[in-house]
Amino acid sequence: MPFKLNADRRHHIPKQRFKVTNWRDYDASLRQRSSLTVWVTREAIAAWQAEPRTTRGGQRTYSALAILAALTLRAVVRLALRQMEGLIGSVIRLLGLDLAVPDHSTLSRRAETLEVPRPRARAGAEPMHLLVDTTGLKLCGAGEWLHEKHGTKVRRSWRKLHLGMDAGTGKIVASLLTSKDVDDGSQVGPLLDQVEGPLASFTGDGAHDQDGVTSSVTERHPEAAIIVPPRANAVPSDTAATAPTQRDKHLQPIAKHGRMAWQTASGYTKRAKAETGMSRFKQVIGDGLRPHTDEGQVTEVGVAVHVLNRMLLVWTAPDGIGCARVRSVLISNKGDRPWTRLAELEWTRRSMFSSCTG
Predict the structure, then answer these.
(1) Residue 321 has what pLDDT?
(2) Which residue, 26, 124, 132, 162, could crosslink 176 as a Cys pair with Cβ 3.0–4.6 Å?
(3) Angle 28-69-143 (CA atoms, 0-180°, nearest 5)?
(4) How far, rounded to the nearest angstrom, does the alpha carbon of residue 330 sit from its chain's CA centroid?
(5) Over the stretch 4-34, which tens digit does the pLDDT of each residue have?
């Protein structure tokens, strides 16, 4: 939202230009983008096969960890399921492991019922500043292929992705996938239900300027500040003079100092980090959904969030371990672990470098 109000008067402002001065580091970072590093813990190798079933029904061959590892690697390198099957087999052979490779049919079927680990709050963490944003993901299928091949006019389908991000760490703590007709404000409650711990503030764009959003935040986190820009035609409430609401407290400085000054004073400028998170999602994962079923699409989004949070641990690692845009996959059955604790595990590190771009 910043500077959009001045769009009709910004034609004279020159576009910012950036000059690269550290060419050596820049070239190294470009080469590092195609680096694929795979960590496999010994616990993950032992848990690759499914545990014996104690109830009626067929015995599964692969555990949920094996399916999650395959889908995680697929999200990183952006391959189809058949190509993913071949890549996993190559990785296992290069690592010298005696493990069976799940076929593409098994991956497609198990993805619909897979439980992806949810982000967990850190113990003793301070109240979170939650940033909420929404974007669209197109459905990839025969319609897109017909449009590119024959120029056929088709009605493109897409779905909405709602993300909640921690402003302090950049970690995605909540995610939802809905149809394109769902209102953004109606999904604030389900997003807040996924957040663990107290909130210090809730920040959203103008689409969240609704009474339902305010009530959803207040019911779950009464002490949280609600930072949402009021609409251009917004008016104060009837009790603005005696008992002003948070929305009334936003309208007063906007009327006195202007909307741009309010954005800086209220901390609304932090919402730019949510836009950065959306950009990171589409650059690393992509802007489309490949599964054809709703359950598979929800799992793909959950795996993508799991991948981005894991990559964030590597990118922000101390001692220069992480490097921006490195393709890294950690296969472990220990859930989310801080990077500083990886050295305490008895884990085997193997690296494979290939031209996996995206």
Answers:
(1) 40
(2) 162
(3) 85
(4) 17
(5) 566 666 666 677 777 888 888 888 888 877 7
Q: pTM for the full model?
A: 0.78
3-state secondary structure the chain: CCCHHHHHHCCCCCCCCCCCCCHHHHHHHHHHCCCEEEEEEHHHHHCCECCCCCCCCCCCCECHHHHHHHHHHHHHHCCCHHHHHHHHHHHHHHHCCCCCCCCHHHHHHHHCCCCCCCCCCCCCCCCEEEEEEEEEEEECCHHHHHHHHHCCCCCCCEEEEEEEEECCCCCEEEEEEEECCCCCHHHHHHHHHCCCCCEEEEECCHHHCCHHHHHHHHHHCCCCEEECCCCCCCCCCCCCCCCCCHHHHHHHHHHHHCHHHHHHHHCHHHHHHHHHHHHHHHHHCCCEECCCCHHHHHHHHHHHHHHHHHHHHHHCCHHHCCCCCCEEEEECCCCCCCHHHHHHCCEEEEECCCCCCC
For tokens 């190509």, what's the residue?
Answer: 83
Structure tokens at 257: 């100092």
Pick 128-280's CATH classification: 3.30.420, 3.30.300, 3.40.50, 1.25.40: 3.30.420
Report yes or no: 239 and 215 within 8 Å, Cβ to Cβ: no
Which one-letter amino acid corresponds to residue 202? F
Assess contact for 77 and 36: CB atoms under 8 A.
Answer: yes
Chain centroid to CA 59: 33
Q: Dig out the tokens for 34 from the structure.
A: 């195609």
- Alpha-carbon radius of gyration of the chain: 23
All structural domains of the chain with their residue ranges: 31-112+295-351, 128-280
**CB distance 71 to 299 below 8 Å:** yes
Chunked in runs of 10, what are the mean pLDDT values of the chain (358 residues)?
59 73 85 76 87 85 91 88 91 88 93 87 79 90 60 71 92 92 92 91 92 93 93 87 90 90 91 90 89 91 91 62 44 47 32 28
